[in-house]
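User: I'm new to structure prediction. If I give you an amino acid sequence, what do you actually give back? Let's try with this one:
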Amino acid sequence: MGYLVKIQKVERPTNKSYYVNLPAAIADAIAVSKGELFEWWIEDKNVLVLSRTKKHSRRMFKNRLPS
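Assistant: Good question. You get back a string of structure tokens that encode the predicted 3D arrangement of the chain. For your 67 residues, that looks like this:
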């Protein structure tokens, strides 16, 4: 199951921006820190990929074997 989010569009006189909010549950699960850098890229018209610029070690979850 995933989390549904809405894209927000903000139009200002000088620029137009779109925002995507990262749900707190997702941010907590991957231990996002304030100010941490991520990058987006387009895999295809249906898939956007979000990746950390600085790699973190894999996190162990309860009752799950490492992959």
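You can read the tokens as a compact description of the fold. Here is one thing that stands out. The longest helix spans residues 24-29.
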